[in-house]
Structures are given as C-alpha cells and as structure tokens.
Amino acid sequence: MTIFSLWAHKVINKAGGLVYQRNFAGSSSDGLAQLTSNEYLVLAGTLHGIHAITSRLSPTGSSSGAQVIEGETFKITILLTATGTKFVLLTSLAEATAEVVLQRVYEAYSDAVMKNPFHTPEMPIRSEGFDARITSLIGAGQP
Amino acid sequence: MQQYSQPHPRFSVLSGSSLSSAEHLSPTASSTRFSLPSAPSINTAIGTPKPGPRPNIYDRNINKTRTSEVSASALTFLFSEVVQYTQKRVSGINDLERRLNTLGYRVGTRVLELMVWRAESSSKAPKREIRFLPALMAIHTQVWRAVFGRPADAIEKSVENEDEYMIIDNDPPIERHISVPRDMNQLSCSSFTAGIVEAVLDGLGLPARVTAHHTPTQQFSSRTTILIKLDKSVLEREEILK
C-alpha cells in the first residue's frame, strides 16, 4: 500500500511535457530509482505517446485511452482530464485508492494552480499552495 | 478584461452588482464545470425569468440581493485574471500594489454607496458614522460581511504611532489560492482589499492611507494585516469632537 510517485503530466501541443513530479516517502527504500529531471521528462513523454496509442486501439468506438497499467509489482494509474492534462500515480499493486487520490490531486490542481495568478499555463508548477495540498493529501514527499 | 475602462461596476465584488459580469456568460451555454452556482440567483433577484429585455440593474431591489452569494471559484478566477492583467502593465511590486489598490478603490466607493442605500431603506434609524472608531468597527464587520460574507478577525491599534490602526484577516478569501513567488514576497494581493477600505474611509470623510501587509503566523499562513494610516486632519477633528 505504498504510493511511490506522482507525476502531474500536462500536455503541451502534441508532445507531453512534465510540469510536476514528486516522489513520496518509502520510495527509495523500496528501490524506486532516483532519476534526473531530464529522465523524468523523457519518461513522461514516452507515457504520453503510449497513452495516445492506447486511445486509438479501441475496437468499439472512441476511447479516452489507458487508465491503469499494471506490472508484476506496481501499477500506473492515469487520470485524463477534460482539458488534456494527465495526472499519473505510480503505486503498489495493493493500493486501492489511487483513483480517488488522483481526483483529489485534480481538485488541488484546479484550486492551487489554476486559480493562482502567478502560474503560467503549460509551465512547471512552482506553487507552495499546491505542494502543501499534495503533502496533506499523500504525505511528506522527498526532495 | 478589455472593457475595464467602461464606467460599469465590473469589479464590484458585491453580490448584487457582480452578477452583472456574470450576465456575459450565458448559464446555459457554459459547461457544467464552469457554471456559476450563483446563476439561479440572477433569476430570483428579478422574479420569474421572462423573455425579452432584462430589467436595468439600477431598477432592481437593492435589498433582495443582500444575502445572495457569488461562486467563490468564479470570484477567485476573476481576481486571478485581475492580478495577471495588472501585472502585465506594471514595473515592480510597489506599482502592482498601487494599481490593485486603485481597482479596490473603485469597488469600495460602490460598496459604501450600496451599504448606505441598503441601511436607508431597511432600518428605521439609518445612521452615518462620523467618528473614526465606530466607522472602523463598521468596516470590520459590515463592510467585510458585505464583501466577503464574514467579519474580519481582529482590529488592532498601533502602539508606536497613534494614527495607525490595523484590521486583521486570518484567511483572506481572495488570496486563498494565491501562492506568491519567493522573489516577490513583499507583495500582498490584499492591496485590493486595502483599496476598498481606503475608499470607504474616504467616503465617510476620514481620509487615510491604507496598505496591506502579509503577516503570516504558524497557524494562519495567509494572515494579512490591513494597515490604516489616518490623515492628520482626522486626528485633529477627533480631538475636537471628544
């Protein structure tokens, strides 16, 4: 029941740009590799591409794309919003609250980021209010 | 925002008049996510909706909208745009605060006028404040209630300067979702509120210079102090009236 990492993943044009990323307590002891910010950007771009592919694979009409991707030891939950922003949560398999957490993150994003006049759309999120909301939602993060 | 120069109370945060800006958004056309929860109150304010031209805002009953509320989300989005619009047209933090103060001043003059008219029509003995302290109390409770829906949290008097008074708000609603970047940390967006207070004091004949300062405590991270520095003439008159 561990939440490893949260990527708030905002789409810029047709390429996916990462605007917020944070790892959470216990992730390094559980062996989540520490990556450079560039590597996170690449991963986010790749995931954006995979998501775009999955949204075109549906044999029965249109689809919003992948929502959960599961591995042997972890799962990736993706929340696609109406405006194209993606929120991605990396958790353990047993974590049952990922969808709910992502909805809450979306709420925090709408409040603390979109209503903040000092935030530039499509740019990385540097908002103390958002950090505080995420901390109270998920727990202390790692730098 | 283009119509900002029009002589129209677009920036009024008072429930009744701010609905006029909501008129531009058709409640049926907007998506559910951005629809204004207060939209139905437009209709209740003017009775049953009828096709045809809506009554002029100046013909409406000023007391019917006294307790109606606007959506906090819509207001914060609007204020966020106000700050962004202003920030693009200024150089420096002092300039930004001054412009926000000026915008608040435009709201404040209308707040005072509307409050006086409402008191006139609803109370049997309407009263105009002529002394400073009762006026300060009225700002702390009535003005705050009319604009933000609740009284401010405290009034303080400066120990060092006898012409300085402070109104304290622990969690200013317009700043609730604003995170000021570190390189601008002297900025307080409540300069807008300071402008409202300055206009009300000016309108009551108590000229003062009003500024806003961010004074966080452990418990309240967005606590804000509205500092009122009274004009010398006010103190002299208070002395005579004693």
Q: What would CATH call the architecture of the domain at 73-241 in chain B?
A: 2-Layer Sandwich
The CATH level-2 architecture of chain A is identified as: 2-Layer Sandwich
Strand content of chain B: 5-15%
Kindly report the average pLDDT value of chain B. Answer: 80
Question: How many domain units of chain A?
Answer: 1
CATH class of the domain at 73-241 in chain B: Alpha Beta
Most residues in contact: chain pair: A-B, 14 and 19 residues
Strand content of chain A: 25-35%
Q: In terms of per-residue confidence, which ranges of chain B show pLDDT below 50 for 5 or more consecutive residues? A: 1-46
Instruction: Report the C-alpha radius of gyration of chain B, rounded.
Output: 19 Å
Q: Rg of chain A from C-alpha positions?
A: 15 Å
N-to-C CA distance of chain A: 21 Å
CATH fold call of the domain at 73-241 in chain B: Muramoyl-pentapeptide Carboxypeptidase, domain 2
Subcellular location (chain B): Endoplasmic reticulum; Golgi apparatus, cis-Golgi network
Region (Disordered) (chain B): 22-60
Biased composition (Polar residues) (chain B): 27-46
Keywords (chain B): Endoplasmic reticulum, ER-Golgi transport, Golgi apparatus, Transport
What report would you give on this structure?
- The complex is a heterodimer of chains A (143) and B (242).
- Chain A contains three helices and six strands, in the order E-E-H-E-E-E-H-H-E.
- Chain A is of the alpha+beta class and 143 residues long.
- Chain A has one domain: Beta-Lactamase (2-Layer Sandwich), CATH 3.30.450.70.
- Chain B has seven helices and four strands; from the N terminus they run αααααββαββα.
- In chain B, strands 1-2-4-3 form a four-stranded antiparallel β-sheet.
- The termini of chain B are far apart.
- Classes of the chains: A alpha+beta (143), B alpha+beta (242).
